[in-house]
Amino acid sequence: MKNISDYLWVVISAMIVFLMQPGFMALETGLTRAKNSINVAIKNMSDFILSVAVFWFIGFGLMFGTSFHGIVGSSDFFVNFEQNDWMAAFFLFQAVFAGTAATIDSGAIAERAKFSTYLLMSFITSAFIYPIFGHWAWGGYFYANNAGWLQQLGFLDFAGSTVVHSIGAWVGLSGIIIIGPRLGRFSKDGKANKIRGHNLVFAYFGVFILFFAWFGFNAGSTLTATTKIADIIANTMISAAFGGITGLFISWKFSKNQLPEPESIINGILGGLVGITAGCYYVSAVGAMIIGVVSGLIVYFGALFLEKLKLDDVVGAIPVHGFAGVWGTIATGIFIKENFLLEFGITRSHQIMVQLLGATTAFVWAFGVSFVLMKVINKFVPMRVSSSHEEIGLNIAEHGASTSIFELSNSVRNIIEDRNFKNAEKIEVEFGTEIGELTNYFNSMVNDLKEKEAEVEEALESLHHMAVTDGLTQILNRKKITEILGNEINIAIDYEKKLSILLFDIDFFKKVNDQFGHLAGDRVLVDLSKNVSSTLRKTDYFGRYGGEEFLVIMPKTDLEMAYFFANRIRAKIETMRWAFSDDLTVTVSGGVVENSGEDINKMIHRADELLYYAKENGRNQIAK
Amino acid sequence: MKNISDYLWVVISAMIVFLMQPGFMALETGLTRAKNSINVAIKNMSDFILSVAVFWFIGFGLMFGTSFHGIVGSSDFFVNFEQNDWMAAFFLFQAVFAGTAATIDSGAIAERAKFSTYLLMSFITSAFIYPIFGHWAWGGYFYANNAGWLQQLGFLDFAGSTVVHSIGAWVGLSGIIIIGPRLGRFSKDGKANKIRGHNLVFAYFGVFILFFAWFGFNAGSTLTATTKIADIIANTMISAAFGGITGLFISWKFSKNQLPEPESIINGILGGLVGITAGCYYVSAVGAMIIGVVSGLIVYFGALFLEKLKLDDVVGAIPVHGFAGVWGTIATGIFIKENFLLEFGITRSHQIMVQLLGATTAFVWAFGVSFVLMKVINKFVPMRVSSSHEEIGLNIAEHGASTSIFELSNSVRNIIEDRNFKNAEKIEVEFGTEIGELTNYFNSMVNDLKEKEAEVEEALESLHHMAVTDGLTQILNRKKITEILGNEINIAIDYEKKLSILLFDIDFFKKVNDQFGHLAGDRVLVDLSKNVSSTLRKTDYFGRYGGEEFLVIMPKTDLEMAYFFANRIRAKIETMRWAFSDDLTVTVSGGVVENSGEDINKMIHRADELLYYAKENGRNQIAK
Amino acid sequence: MKNISDYLWVVISAMIVFLMQPGFMALETGLTRAKNSINVAIKNMSDFILSVAVFWFIGFGLMFGTSFHGIVGSSDFFVNFEQNDWMAAFFLFQAVFAGTAATIDSGAIAERAKFSTYLLMSFITSAFIYPIFGHWAWGGYFYANNAGWLQQLGFLDFAGSTVVHSIGAWVGLSGIIIIGPRLGRFSKDGKANKIRGHNLVFAYFGVFILFFAWFGFNAGSTLTATTKIADIIANTMISAAFGGITGLFISWKFSKNQLPEPESIINGILGGLVGITAGCYYVSAVGAMIIGVVSGLIVYFGALFLEKLKLDDVVGAIPVHGFAGVWGTIATGIFIKENFLLEFGITRSHQIMVQLLGATTAFVWAFGVSFVLMKVINKFVPMRVSSSHEEIGLNIAEHGASTSIFELSNSVRNIIEDRNFKNAEKIEVEFGTEIGELTNYFNSMVNDLKEKEAEVEEALESLHHMAVTDGLTQILNRKKITEILGNEINIAIDYEKKLSILLFDIDFFKKVNDQFGHLAGDRVLVDLSKNVSSTLRKTDYFGRYGGEEFLVIMPKTDLEMAYFFANRIRAKIETMRWAFSDDLTVTVSGGVVENSGEDINKMIHRADELLYYAKENGRNQIAK
What we know:
The structure is a homotrimer.
Chain A (H helix, E strand, L loop, with lengths): L3 H15 L1 H12 L2 H31 L2 E2 L3 E2 L11 H24 L6 H24 L10 H4 L8 H19 L20 H20 L8 H27 L7 H16 L7 H24 L8 H19 L2 H7 L3 H33 L6 H6 L1 H6 L4 H15 L15 H35 L9 H18 L3 E8 L2 H8 L1 H18 L5 E4 L4 E7 L3 H16 L13 E7 L5 H17 L5 E2 L1
Parallel strand pairs in A: 6-7
Antiparallel strand pairs in A: 1-2, 3-5, 3-6, 4-5
């Protein structure tokens, strides 16, 4: 018969074990990237509330109900604990254990497991995988004479190194094998890339909370108020401390940069905690110390081993809960105090064998069942998110949620992808949030860069214009028109195209200057240039060749055609009216030549000669 | 008579209930924006320490002191618990309850409520609003035969769905009505804009802590160590789990983007916790499940309802603590187990009526009193911060404190507001902090942009200069001076202003070149240009019109005045001394004309004619 | 004989005290900068696991083992608690106390203490400093008749204001004196610069956890389940509340910006907690209130006092744990209730004297021993990190770890330090992390700026080129070559160097134009320029001086040498072959002069005259 102290102890322990949930949440969110952190938190919360419901409906009955040949419980589904206060206390304690088992795999498969199928696996773990194995090891804890088959063989797992932790880890192992490593975790050349979590401080905080919750986990497993709870907690603390110290110094010695690495210390502590869980009641403080040290080693090298196998366990759940769990289970046989062996009437070696059997059974059961189930599920609904979802992160992809820092980086990624800041307009400013401010900033910065870019381009264009343009007439200058002609001759020769030019000169230009002044002469040059420009075809080039001398380049044009156009130009000029004098008529004389494979020099020279010929022949005419 | 187990249970429960404070803090800081997060934390801390003091001074006595006709307690102010250890334990438990009631409204009115008046309202809530209603429902919990009037009627609220949670929520409701929604929460067109919190992971962590603290809250309310505490906690856990599951699936189904939303899950859980608080002792596990599911629904749709009413409840405190609190109070009547009804000698429907009465009374009292008081306070001291304070955030505005990310965004906002990076100097670098580094970066970036800007401007200026300046003399070139003259003529004609020009030419310039060399000629042009430039008025323009020909434009100047200035220029040149020859005298001849409505062409032509006339007339003179 | 309630109470209290560790961790990481936050977390974790091990090995025995004349314990090393369950419980409680003492100094010396030597000091504190003083005050707590000398004198320190908190603080004080203030904490002019922590919200959360843990700390110190635990916790809560309220209002009144500062409130609360720790069992609630208020004042002004002394205590550990600890110890004598004085048979003034003695002894012992030891250690291994490590932060420097925000700021610092974005390539992109995204962004931004910079530079260069170059020949234009000659003349005169020039002119250039056309003339100018350019020495300058006139400047060259080079040029030109005419020979005539101290004008003039002389003398020759 339980007395009030037992109730207090078990209820308080259950509450404390509940804190494993925020502990795992802080640890796992801290060790993952910000873009997935909210998803991790939601998974931790959701798997707990789901597993409470499921364990109440099915799990508890399968685990502690009246045993069917030591294989499975068969009563107490939809637990009714109102008539039996002790059952309520016992249920509470077991429900938070089930919740722990259900959440362990979440860390291993974080950052790419789909929320919906993750919930399904949580359901299966809480409803079947955990409770059925739990029945084998702990089936007789509530009803007398109800032991499961492992328990009957004398399997010892005081608080669940195997029952809770290994089971959770093996489900996680199936998961990481089936859904594969995160994008970028392993390079194509097989190199492992470390993907660091976004908030190690919070991860450390989580470990402290887990450390605390573990006291309740281990000592509460007495399920009764006894003076032994102090020893249990002291053992737990010592194993954890030495696990952590081992992790600290081993990474200081062996890690790549020979520094005490943050992850090694906390995983050492967690390994020490998992390791002592099975034997916390049975071993001495010195035994606890050794278990802790070895756990620290196993976790450190176990993680390296997984990495070698290209298995991607985000938080190190498998080395911590799986490998250290197996070690702790076996170590219970190794370090169990004599008086217990006497009490149980068993030899140490026999005990070790039973422990090994239990640990192996757990692996075969949990890994086997979960692997097969996930394979099947994965066939119908992929358990992994799409790679685009993985890239943008599960916070956004699965919950429409985000952290400030993620949203910022996402905005800038958008900018980058379109380059040249073309989509600056697209970034929406969320009113009043920090990210809104930052977005504003980027929009502004981008805008500034755009303006600057425009100014520079304008300047360059201006420069270019100046370099190739005649200052007065704004048509091509001598340097440019000559350069173009050189190119066009090359093209004409290379591609066997026609090419003609017209060189023309204003007749009696000196007289215009003398009679109407400098400005009038300029005006003639400017207006004539404009007029001719508007007469030309798009493919023609027009430049000022000298004082009052102009050159027109006519690509893909033979002599006759060029002559026709040249005359049109001449005629057009002849009919121009001049603002400064009503009766002035300006005429030009010119020479047209077609390129005959000669070089620029000779071609111009020929045109020049024809021009002189036209002049001498009476002016206002084109010679060819 | 209480025994030691009772002490242990109540004291431990009280400690655990204390954790509601960090739980609320994490939840509320996580759901608000970074710029207000520290303010939220300070409010949570301050209202607790204040309410402890106030509850000790006044509140406890009003709530549990000897009853004045069931209306108010009237003894035990400034509680003296040293002579009575049980009173100490009872006080502890009640003080953390009062602290909880006082902090609930903080989440609703976060991000715009002023710190000073917030403290005042906390004081009033802890000193009067909560204890007086508390007396009505729970007055007889310490002294026998001391029941308040609601308690006498048989009102059941085991751990405070109404007494603690609704009371807190209704005070919050007054608050959000009086101080109004946050800037930007509702658009002018009435659209609601979601303002997301800055750290959902921390909010989730806070919910786990609240979940844990609630176990103590509900089970500790037995105020005695009893085997029933296990049932109570189990009911609490089940209701919370189903509240959360409901929130999860309902948002997955009904939310805009059909995703399981982070806020829905935690508010579902909190709704389930509030809902079960009144009946946790009275209902069965199945009753707890139903209460949880309905709470989840109420919270989800209640939040939408508030949004419809344009009420801005930052963390959803009113749906969670108010609406679910009312539901939980009524549900206690609906789901109370038969044996209790028999024990209390009351029918179910009667019980439900009493529950309704209690819930209604709480609303009328807490909302009514707080609304009136806040209206009055608000008249004398505005309860809302200024909108500029709201914009920069309460961390800075009310505490001179900041988070790194906020300070960053604030710095860049300053940059943006002054545009063109003019106030880059103003950003102070805080030594050695991350924000200092980032600020450094921005200063540097901004500086770089400024330099680039300067270079570009210099380049553009240089370009412009080259385009309008004569390369040798550095005065305006022909193109520019002509362009200016055109403009000035237009202005003169349009505005009927005078306009004169002087065109002048160096006499015998060829001789200078021949006699003293090219360089001497250039020197004459350069020095003469400088000399003339210094002679001109600010409004005049001066350009090189041709080889040794210059043009001076004199706006708003009639012929006589222009003639006067022209002669001054001529005289000045005549007296110039030349470095390369001691006895050389350079003279100029020029023509001055006033515009008579003619165009630029004719005007220059006239000046040119006068220039020639001057030359022919003996040189070194100005003709007009 | 202890009963089960005692076990429950002490074990549960020990667990709760354990939470001081995450409490301190959150507080200290929050109050330090992000770049050191992980290091702080690791230190907090490491010192705890180390102190558990050390306290188990040595500390416990020195503190509680059989006393050697009241000076030191001498049994129970490597505590064996398996045969004695009570010893296990007692050990647990004491181990978490030792862990607390060991961690207090970490906050004071944060952000610059080296990890390795910090661990060493933690070891020494847990192994010797804390346990030996502990023996003096508390030595008789486990074995009867085993009291230390202070305990024998009647020294009262119920839960360790002095034993735990002051001891920790004085070790910290030695530390901050020996390792000195953080870089930038005090300006050279002696001004104190506030270095704000990166996450005040988390610091607040930590204070809530500490507040909670303190309930276990103080009330658990009964070491037995008694009804007094409620009074103790109530006193603790009241003192803390009033400490906090004092801190709140005093900073509102006295702080620079007259705002309720975040750090003042929490340090007030912590001061109130430390202050009441010694007397929580002995004083009344009113005494607790006064102790709290005074603690709040002491902490506030104590921090200002330390700042005056240029001592840099990062989190305010010394005012909180040291000053308030001394005050609390003395206050126990002042406020102890009469009945206790009667019971102990001591007068109040005598008690106060004993308290003072105890507090003083603690200072002398802990400060003295730690100061000497650290001085020695510091000689062999510097206890402070290098200033470069301090600048990049201990996360990276000591653990290769980082936070996202730090890594960002570090990247940009690298950019800044090399200026002009030269090392943009160096920033490695970490795949898939947020910082990776941001780094990408910066790389892209920087790249953009580089491109823009290049464009601007190109534009400027282009401009410059245009301004100094002759458009046709691409050699220096008249303006530039004249400017250079002016400079060179000045240099020649100032430094008494030789300087010669060659002015030359193409013979019969007009004929080339007339005979072969414009283009041929241009070609002559261009080709000749190229040819001459390739003939010149690196130090010579070559420009087009007029139409067909060229100037060569030959610095550090006397007349003969110049004449030699000039003839080489002339000869070279004479032998040039021309594309447009097989039989054309172009010749030049020139004049060479050496500067004789004359100005540019006269020098050119002389060269010009020689040039004319050469022409008249038959052309194709150089005159000197």
